[in-house]
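Issue: ligand-bound run for tryptophanyl-5'AMP - logging full I/O for the record.

Environment: standard queue, default settings, no custom constraints.

Inputs:
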Amino acid sequence: MKILISGIKPTGHIHLGNYLGAVKNWVDLQNKYSCSFFIADLHSLTMKISAQELKQQTFDLVVDLLAMGIDPKKSIFFRQSDVWGHAELSWIFNCLIPVAELERMTQFKDESARQPDNVNAGLLTYPALQAADILLYRAQYVPVGHDQIQHLELSRVIARKFNQRYQKFFPEVQPVLSDSPRLMSLNNPQKKMSKSLGEASYIAIRDKREIIQAKIKKAVTDEQGVKNLLELYSYFGDKKKHSQMTKDFSTGQLMNVKLKEELSLAIIQFLEPIQKKIKELEKNPSRVNKILKDGAKKAQKIADKNLKEVRKMIGVD
Ligand code: TYM
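Outputs:
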């Protein structure tokens, strides 16, 4: 079976952009590929985050992903930092990739601008760790949102460089995009929905009814904004109502208040069963932690085997 992998950072709250751009696809693809999904906690260290926050947010994210349908019986589900090979392989990749390539990365530029007092080396070499996350398992398919495409291109460059310098070992990484690879922000429809644009930008998976209603009520309704709300409605709402509202929009007859009410309702209904599962899972933290431990064991096994071969190829076995 074809090998597929993806990860998500445990920083802030997981939101509908993460869900529609990536996680929804992960859940569906579990039946078609040999899948691994991980919590990218080492990547979160590029931001200022306390030990306690990182621990809590990792736990919350594991719970959220399980509640959304990641199934540890079908997929290997683990925490990046539990498998040592990610860090080791990323060092090897760091020695292959020119600094200039890393400096070109949009995410590096954005993040450096966002946290000018914390432009750490990890922010720069972030894509080498991401390439290691993927290639440690010799995975070829990576379901992500649009913002990760540039990093995946760099993973391809890194694999090619390794294969040329040593021997052909790593596959060419390919992104797998969802129907909604770039969901836009509620408060700034020109920009993608993102934790870094503040809470008003996104609907978090854990948001309560009143919060969802309030955020959507405040959502910007210029032309692009309404288009985004309609797009969101198309994923969660009623098909017939969606096509009627789209028609009304094109003839200038759409009432934004009605769209917002319908959309809030649809999202609340969609999130209700997920939030119920979250509550159930939270009652049993030892079960959640055991899922991660079991996943790490399986991942470590594959990682060890591949890393052993890499060590031989580069002369450090
Ligand atoms: P992260 O944690 O920022 O986001 C997780 C996933 O959600 C997608 N996403 C979106 N998709 C559509 N619309 C949006 N507004 C939106 N916002 C976020 C992201 O594209 C991503 O797929 N560097 C990665 C994590 C990572 C990784 C990896 C991914 C680390 N190693 C290896 C794949 C393979 C990140 O920060 O994603």
